[in-house]
Amino acid sequence: MADIHELGAVQLRQALATGQLSATEVGEHFLARIEQQNHMLGAFVTVTADQAMLDARAADEAYVRQRRGGPGLPLLHGMPLAFKDLADVAGVVTTHGSGALDRKPAPADGALAAALKGAGAISLGKTQVPEFGLTAYSENRIAPPSRNPHALSRSSGGSSGGSAAAVAAGLVPFAPGSDGGGSIRIPAAACGLLGLKPGRGLVPAGESVGDAARLVVAGPLALSAPDAALMMDALVPDGIRPEGGYLAGLEEAPAPLRIGTSLDSPWSTAFPFAPEQEALDALAKGVDLLTGAGHSVFDAGIRYDNRYPEAFTTAWTAGVGSARILPHREALLTPLTRTFRRRAQQRSAAKVNEALGFLRQFTHDTVVQYAQWDIVLTPSLAQTPRPVGWFTGSTPGGEQWPAPDWPGDADDDYRKQCEFAPWSSMVNVCGLPAVTVPVHWTGPTPGTGLPMGIQLIGKPGSELLLLRLARQLELQQKSAPIASG
Fold first, then answer.
1. How would you classify residue 29: left for phi > 0, otherwise alpha for psi between -120 and 50, otherwise beta?
2. With CB atoms counted within 10 Å of each terminal CB, which end of the chain scores lower, N or C?
3. What pLDDT sits at residue 208?
């Protein structure tokens, strides 16, 4: 057998379910990898090794009872994973990436942890996030930044950056993330993973400070479509999952699809940007793979209302204004959080309601345009993964932590993020499902350099179709290796 961390989540689950591996030895293996590597990666903020091993031993006892005719094993029996540090896990502090909050253990599991732990998964700890999950990079003032396993000087993205780094480095086989403006897809793309943002309301909501526009949804970060499908089978309640489930549904390939490809972004009027060549190369590779699989790809001109940036920013930051922070601890916030918190507190309720009303109209107009195609295709990111500290202007490469004065201008930071990931937030606003799939590497040979991906945006309820399409792309790339620059 391959090393335990080299097994995909589906393979690992099979080994646990058949007794080929015990939950105890699997837990010990991944905890040892975390011990060896996390000091370089900054993926984990908290490691709950003692509780994980207690849970692993309980899982092994359940396996013995099952073999003796007892109850069957849950879907994710003994599977290790980790939760980003915005999600409540009973008995563990949820920092929200902020030094301004009290450090009190969560009294109970949140919806996401309850769903996955209820399916038999074992939590190994909490992973790094930006403060309150607000940014496309996972750096804060309470723990070292999360770094990209493919290049430690680069960011792993955000806000699920620690989870993405952990999966990409083999510290866990897969992990749940939450996505309110790209927070699954951005780090997945930066770390060369598959990241699925389900449609609104399908799975337990990812935790956030506040979410008036219902932007946030939880979904998987995984090495492959089957691994992501396995987590979806655990996340999506009975009666809502497709007949047979997501994993079994991957056995069927998608029918030929009409796919519209676009570089249009609702951010381009506020923050004009030019995609880097690596992003265009990834898109071109995606088009080649899709047409090679028998799909029809067209140029899609999408028109976005130029009022979107202000309305989205109003909705996205509304919750941080209501976060309970004592006045004397405001200075512990990062400049971006502090700036957007102050602005949110100064906005009237009428202004927020006006933004929410605009976003509802934006959703209608955008979904009508997308409906011309089965799938809308964009690059995942407009730029390669950025250096640690790049968004905030702190020490190049992030060698100093925490940065002595956390430099940088909040508005410049935000502009950089919107130019880095200009095709993600409108998917949350519209409540649509989307998946990012790695298709390209920037190095001289496949698998070297930095990964770049494509985003596939589906219609409501098309999560299984997106996973089937992602699986089709994965199989094509196994027969013809991922392109490099």
1. alpha
2. N
3. 55
Reported pTM? 0.97
Q: Where are the beta strands (DSSP E) in 332-420?
A: 375-379
Q: How far apart are CA 313 and CA 174, in angstroms?
A: 31
Answer whether 165's CB lies under 8 Å from 139's CB: no
Active-site residue among 155, 183, 394, 462?
183
CA 133 to chain centre: 11
Which tens digits make up the pLDDT trace of 434-445? 999 999 999 988
183 belongs to the catalytic site: yes
Write down the catalytic residue from 84, 117, 126, 416. Answer: 84
Omega before 159 within 30 of 0, i.e. cis: yes
The pair of structure tokens assigned to 325 is 């922070």
* Catalytic one of 146, 159, 178, 462: 159
Contact of 123 with 52, CB cutoff 8 Å: yes
Tell me the DSSP string of 443-460.
Answer: SSSTT-S-EEEEEEE--T
What is residue 444's predicted lDDT score, i.e. its pLDDT? 87
Query: Pairing between strand 375-379 and 258-261?
Result: parallel
Please provide the size of the chain in residues. Answer: 485
CA gap 193, 185 in Å, rounded: 9
CA angle 364-160-140, nearest 5°? 115
Q: Which residue has the tokens 């060369």?
A: 192
314 secondary structure, DSSP code = H
Quote the CA–CA distance of 333 and 337 in Å, as a whole number.
Answer: 6
For CA atoms 119, 85, 149, 432, the dihedral sign is: positive
Q: How far apart are CA 242 and CA 263, in angstroms?
A: 32
pLDDT digits (tens, 9 = 90+) for 374-408: 999 999 999 999 999 999 987 655 555 666 566 77
The pairing of strands 217-222 and 175-179 is antiparallel
Residue 136: how many other CB atoms lie within 10 Å: 27
Is residue 146 annotated as a catalytic residue, yes or no?
no
As separate numbers, helices (DSSP H) first and strands (DSSP E) second, the chain gives 15, 14
Reference 235, options 177, 187, 193, 185; nearest CA is: 177
